[in-house]
Amino acid sequence: MGEIEELFDKAKTLSLRGKWREARSVYEKIIQKAEEVPGVYLGLGEIALHEGNPEAAEQYFRKEKEQGKITPRLEQLLAVSMILQGKEKESIEELEHSLRLDPKDTRPYIYLGYIYLEQGETDRAQGWLEMAKEEGVESLSLDLYLARIYYLKKERNKLKRVIRGAEEKLSMLRKVLSSPLLDLIEGELKFLTGNFKEAMSLIEKGRKNFPKKGSIFEAGIIYSLAEVEKHLEGLRRGKI
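The structure corresponding to this sequence follows.
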C-alpha cells in the first residue's frame, strides 16, 4: 500500500471514530501531496457537516463532483448540505439525480419527505416517507418525521406505532447523539404523546445549547428548531 492510500485509510478511520480535527488534518496532508484523490473532498465535506458548517460542506462536495466520480452518496450529502442552508429546490434536484443513479437506494425518500414536510406539503411528504417504510427502512429520522405527520392528521394508531419505534431507536443512539439533539428529540416525542410538561422542560433544555443556525445533521438525522419552536410557542400560550 502506498503513502496516499495509507493516509486515506487513516483519515477515514479517524472520521469513523469522531475525531474530526485529526481526520481533517490528514485529508489536507493528502491534498498537499496529490490534489486529486477520489474521496478526499467527500471526507472533508462530511467533517464540515458534522462540525455544523454546511456552506463549507457544499463547497467540498462540489469539488468532489468536479473530479468526475459522482455517486448516490455524494449527491445525497450535497443535498443535505443545501437543505441545512434552506436551498430546498437545489437539494431536490440532487436527490432526484441520486435516485436516477441508483433507483433502489431508499435514503433519498427520507430526505425528500423531510423537505416537503418543512414546506408544508404534508401529503407529498407522507407519500415519500411511507414508501421508505414499505421498503423496510428502519431509522429514527423516518419514524420522527412520520410521527409529525400522523400527529397533524390525528392518525392516532399510526402515531403510536411510529412513536414506539422512534423511542426504541433513540435508546440505541443515546451514546451517539449530542445532548442538545437528544433532549430535543425526547422533548418532541413527549409532546407528540401529550406529555406537555415534560416536553417543555426537555425542549427548553435542548434549545439552549443547540447551534445558532437552528439546524443540524447528526447520525443521519436532519433536525431543525423550527418544528419544536411551534410546539414550545403553543405550550407557552396555553393553546395546547
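The radius of gyration is 19 Å.
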